[in-house]
Amino acid sequence: MNKLKIFAYVALASFSILSCRDAIDIVQDGEITQEVAFKETSDLRRFLVGNVYGSINIENEIALTSYFTDEVAIARSNTGWYLKEFRYDLFSDNSYVSNTWISHYNTIDKVNRLIELSATISPDTASQAEYNSILSEAKAIRALSYITLLSYFSTDMKDDNALGVMLSTEKQSITAKLPRVANGEIYKLIDEDLQFAEDNLLSTATDYKYVTKALVYALRARVNAYRGIYNDVNGKYGAIHYAKEAIKLAPALANAPGTTRASMPYSNMWSDSVQGEVIFALSRPVAGSWSEIAARWTTNTTNLSGSAQMGMSHKLYSLYGNRDIRRIVFVDATSDDNNKIIDKYPGKGNRPLRNDIKVFRTSELYFILAEGYIHNGQLELAAEQLKKVRDARLYGGTQASLPTYANKVEAYKDLLLERRLELCFEGHRYVDLRRLGALAGVSIDRNVKDDYILSSTPLTLPITDHRFTYPIPQSEILGNPEIAKQQNPNY
Amino acid sequence: MSVKLKVLSAGALFFLGGAMVTAQKVKKDTLKETKIEDVVILGYSKTATKPKNVTASTTVSAEKFEGRPTTSFLNSLQGEAPGISINAGSGSPGSAKMDVVIRGVSSINAGSDPLYVIDGMISNATQFRNLNDNDIASASVLRDAAAAAIYGNRAANGVVVITTKRGRYNSPLKFNYSSIVGINTLPSLGYDIMDSKQLLTLEKMYGTGQGASLTDEQIANWNTNTNWRDVFFRKGIMQRHDLSMSVGGENVNLFSSVGYLNSTGIVPTSDFTRFNFRNNVSGRSSNKKFAYDIQSALSFSKRNQLLEETNSGLANNTIQNPLLGAPRALPYLKAGQFATGQSLYDAIGSDFSRGKGIYVLEDVLKSGHLPNKRTETGILLNGDFSYKLTDKLTFGNKSGIDYKYSESMSARAPWSYLAIVVAKNSAVKGVEESPYGGHETVNKVTELNFNSITRLIYDTKFGDNHSLTLGGYLDYLKTHYNYTSQTANGLNPLNWVFGAGTGYLSPIYKNNPAGGDPVVFYVPNASQAKITAGTLAYFATADYDYAGKYGFQALVRRDGSYRFASGNKWATFWSVAGRWNIDKESFMANSVFDMLKLRASYGIQGNQNIIAVASGENPLLVGTNIIREIYSTGLGYDNTTGVLAFGGLKNPLAQWEKIAQANIGIDFSVKRRFSGSIDVYDKTTSELYNDINLSGVTGAYSILGNNGKLRNRGVEVALKYDILKNTDLKLSVYGNVAYNKSKILSLTKDENSGSVRNVTGGLLSEWYAAPYVGVNPANGNLLFLNKNGQAVETIGPEDQVATGKNRISPWMGGFGLNADYKGFYLTTHFAFQQGAWKYDTLLYWLERPANIGNSNLVASQLNAWTPTNTTTNVPSLTAFNHQQGVDYSDRYIRDASFLRLKNLSIGYNVPKEILRGTAVSGLKIFVTGENLYTWTKWQGYDPEPASALSVYPNMRTFSFGVNVDF
User: What's the pLDDT score for residue B43?
Assistant: First the structure.
């Protein structure tokens, strides 16, 4: 009897333990594993569009460039935002620096993952071209991220032996700790990636919100210009060649016919109603919860009553000529003497702060050409390129005069001026100053009114200041302590 | 051995089921007269008499919870037991924000909330707004491993065991009615904020804002001087009524109660209402072999709250948080100028500058403009059944469900300013030129927790002096959670009514004549979530006693959690404990001690709630997948649907946090007048689950994983002395104090930036800052000590050094006095915390020169350094390095120590002789005050909340109450 009871208890106990396993063997509903997600080529495209394109983010650079250099002035409705960066505080804990670094490495990681996932899929003959084209787009995007990283973190982009950034070409384990490598190694990968894209991108890829052949050439022009390689060397093309190739494929400069704003393609390009001269823009559609670029400078709207934090620099504003369309397009009409409300991103539809983020426009190609010609001492050719852009920016049939330069320094100075006028709030000024500032004898150039609160804020910084190279972010050093030894000078 | 001691040992460790059977033999207790402090309530319904308790635990009895105008019993527990710190994070009526920590924060990222056990059922809740504190018979705080280990997988942070009131056998029908009515007020701020004339003068001095354009004479004649505190706050009223009944027959007894509580907050739009019903039934078979104990509780609560309560982003938002808005509002602006949202929009557009945001706050707080209502319905059912198979062997099961349905609704009314401004700014020419504004969101959550514990207990005595209890248990827990949310965007003011579903607009998609994307308006959102979670454990216990002189307890527990990968799913934890009742030794025969006991325990517990949750959330329901790398679908780039994205890095190696705790304690009682306990402990958490820094090349800067070791060491003392006893005047005092110090023993990588760092050898979350040393008399700039100890004007992150301070108080405790004279009584309770340092964000705002013209400042700024005022401790308003002082120095890290008169009650128990012959058998009237006075250097509203932002402070309450037995 007793034995029977004990047996019953044991049986009951073991039964209950077994039947209770449902409390700990739980996988939540709807989890998708890699095996389920990736079966054919079209799944790779889903990942490319879902994760690779979506990861591209250049807003951190655009924002910090504008605060730190000479693109903004403190608006009267400023409630304390961005003053730190505006007053040149730049340390390794700066969040824009940290976010620039992680955003691009995140994109690189997603591309690397896509490449790894692609190895698990064997495309049939029909989809081989699409398969290669997907990889082309991904690699071009990876190249864009590496170019951007180098342009902020490398100590000297023109020197292949100078310190670049970490080189990652495959999915990394969570214990990965990579050193910075020489620029040359990064350039090698960029060239390979862009070459692959050039060779394999489908000719149907023409949507400017995605990678196109024009973008691939444009990126090759940009990276070579940053390297100071303007001419063809040893059978490899330089910036001038690629800029010309890109111009052939890129949309024409958006000019400014007539006198009403609505009729000007250049104006409509900024409100995303036409492509204009955009070669590549990050799509930020009206619907959905996409980033709102204008919020980098204002709170509610891009007009005087929108609680702007930062307006356009009074110095920059003063540099636009009378018939310059950019004075009208980049500054909101409600602006007053103290507040030049930035309207380069005027919003669209019912999103007053959201616009596509323009990554590459045709005008930059002409600047690259001009830069190459200046480098070669072909100053008249350079002047012609700048005039092309200026002509397109003057409204009411006005033509710009052809500039004449006594020497290279003058020409570089004029190039930097035009780049500043044209590319403000697109994340170029900081890199332009560090690339060309010394050659042109130009540095940050503000108006006293830009910081109306503290007259003690300097109007410029020496072009040799260490803050013209980003610090390696503290967040990276925490996960990768050895890289601290490769910190940029004076941080 | 004396006879007295034999009686005591008869009340050996027992289980509640058994207790009901044997209770009559041991002692004829009545519910009201039970000396609950003589019994210690332990895990899984175990209880022990004080001499036999081997654990570090403290039981707080019902009278501490009765007659308090609080909405959660935790408010009443503060300072009552050593080693438990309770900080209300919000005084909003019915708030879930309560930071409860037992023996120091034992984790960096994981939850530090203790486990709550109500009537033997593990509760996954951390908020108790729906538990009527008048129903509580006792609350025990279990601190050491010996006490808490039995609860295994979620008890590593200590346990609070709550028992509710029961009826008793063979007792007549009795009723009790109690009622309290009180007034809540907002505590005052310690900052000396400026009036209109002062502020205008400062603005003139600084050259910005309204004052800059005024002459001295105009400033002197400025008439408006608005007290925004009076505009935004009121006195809240609270009332509660409770009626309970108890009765018992030969083999069944019953306790029932109904309660109603209503409290209006000090901000006009906040309030709280609660209804409770509870029914506790116990019974037994006539042969006393079978016993049951069933509790059922129903509750419903409703509250209207500030958005700030659940959206931490708003704590620092002046246009939605009156606690921050009021002190910063410009006093020279007039209140009440705008009757409607539309008139405000017409006046200011979307320009909040120059302090105009305060009008928006006025609009936000208008009744019905931004309603935010939460209701919660709870059903708690649990039953314990036990059957004595033999004299020595008892089989039992305790099962229960805890069901919660909550609904929260919030809206922006279409006529509110914020709705209007957003709508106007989204207007599209030629498409929707005056769009409808506003939105309404409804969230519904159901949560069902099922817990079942099956036990087999063997209880025996052998020889004259040996008693042994062995137990085997199986503990099963499963949680089912469902969440539904819907949002309507765009509301028609003609017929929209909050929560009625009327006035919703259909979405429109139209081409934009200006080109580009089509424009969409009024697109609704809907979402749904489902989570299943669970744990499973089996464990064995052994309790041995020799002659009431020596005791030994051991436990081993095998715990499984759904959270971890298969290799780490199960873990084994254990504890051992022993005691020596020194007073029972013959050499102590004539000593003054009627009890003197030495205890020691050691154990290792696991914590699987490794991700901290928002206040009031169930920690089992977060981190539902921390181990499996997955892909997600959703809206992709360029609004492409059906895309795939990587779901983020996961850590398949994640495992239990392990907490090892050693405890040595002494319990004593002298002449039954002076009693107390002293404990020292060392609690070490290893496998800390927190951020592991990664290189950005992985796509992320950090991943959660097990990394590091943290130690908490401390001492706890609790004392009670009955100064006068058995006289007309009865007087007793009590107090407790605890000291706890944290130290990080190891981490894979010390943090080396930021103001709050975890560094090996340092405190948990230690402040790192460069000392702020004052004003440079030469130019008015701020001076700091850099890392080399030199006074400099420019500092950076590398100059931040360890301060030896953190936000957690090392010292805390409470004390009080109880006096009684012929029915008149006085009780006081003080609580204190010492040594916490918090960042005074509000002071930073109030001293920030960049805010001049936009918000109010403290009057000290009038004395700022100028070339003609060089001997001052207020930096120049134009000093270039204010921001460095904020980011890198200790300028705003302030002492948040406090001593608080938590409760003061004065009352009168009407003597029984007077009541004789009436239906009333007992009558008490009393007045009581909560949070009456706080001694502190902290200048903000309240030093207590863990968040130093402008959160809803603990209110000061005065109330009047009556308690009738009949």
Answer: 60
Non-local (6+) Cβ contacts of A491 within 8 A are A91, A92, A466, A471, A472
Look up tokens 């307006």; give the residue: A311
Report the alpha-carbon distance of residue A399 to residue A252 in Å, rounded: 17
**Do residues B812 and B898 make contact, with C-beta atoms less than 8 angstroms apart?**
no
Residue B222: HSE in the Cβ half-sphere, 13 Å Cα cutoff: 23
Backbone dihedral region of A3: left (phi > 0), alpha (psi from -120 to 50 degrees) or beta? alpha
Please list the ranges in chain A whose pLDDT falls under 70: 1-19, 258-259
Q: Which of B394, B520, B701 to mutate to test the interface with A (most CBs of A within 10 A)?
A: B701
State the CB neighbour count (10 A cutoff) for residue A199: 10
> Which residues 251-280 on chain A approach chain B with CB closer than 8 angstroms?
262, 268, 271-274
Residue B828 main-chain phi, psi, to 5 deg? -130, 150
The tokens of B599 are what?
A: 């205890």
Please give the Cα distance from B799 to B48 (Å, whole number).
55
Which two tokens mark B816?
């009080």
Report the C-alpha gap between A178 and A201 in whole angstroms: 31
Ordered alpha helix ranges (H), A27-82 = 34-37, 41-47, 53-55, 59-68
Say which residues have a Cβ less than 8 Å from residue B215's Cβ, sequence separation at least 6: none
Residues in chain B: 966
pLDDT of residue B2: 32
Q: Using one digit for the tens of pLDDT, what is the confidence trace for B433-458? A: 899 999 999 999 999 999 999 999 99
> What stretches in chain B show pLDDT beneath 50?
1-37
Long-range CB contact pairs, B491-494, < 8 A, 24+: B491/B411, B491/B413, B491/B414, B491/B419, B491/B436, B491/B437, B491/B438, B491/B439, B491/B440, B492/B414, B492/B436, B493/B413, B493/B414, B493/B415, B493/B436, B493/B438
CA angle B855/B861/B862 to nearest 5° reads 110
Q: What are the chain B neighbours of A93 within 8 Å (beta carbons)? A: 753-754, 797
**Binding-face residues of A in 452-481 toward B, CB within 8 A:** 453-457, 473-481
Contact A332, A302 (CB under 8 A): yes
User: In the prediction, which pLDDT does B478 show?
Assistant: 92
Chain A, nearest residue to B646 by Cα: A51
Residue B72, token pair as written in the block: 């959660």
Q: Please, what is the angle between helix A362-375 and helix A239-249, to 10°? A: 150
* Contact by Cβ (8 Å): A160, A183: yes
For the purposes of burial, counting CB atoms within 10 Å of the CB of B465, is it exposed (0-12), middle (13-18) or buried (19 or more)?
middle
| Contacting residues of B for A172, CB less than 8 Å apart | 695, 697-699
Residue indicated by tokens 């380069």: A344
The answer to whether B435 contacts A20, with C-beta atoms less than 8 Å apart, is no
pLDDT digits (tens, 9 = 90+) for A130-177: 999 999 999 999 999 999 999 999 999 999 999 999 999 999 999 999
Q: Is the Cβ pair A31, B630 closer than 8 Å?
A: yes
Contact assessment for residue A415 and residue A371, using Cβ atoms and an 8 Å cutoff: yes
For residues B117 and B83, what is the distance between their CA atoms, to the nearest angstrom? 18
Instruction: Return d(Cα B174, Cα B244) in angstroms, integer.
Output: 8
* Chain B partners within 8 Å of A60 (Cβ): none
Short-list B236, B360, B258, CA closest to B305: B236
Q: What's the CA gap between B781 and A262, in Å, rounded?
A: 51
Which residues of chain B neighbour A166 with C-beta distances below 8 Å? 695-697
Look up residue A133 and give its two tokens: 């084209």
Of B352, B431, B521, the CB nearest to A307: B352
Q: Quick check: helix, strand or coil at residue A242? A: helix
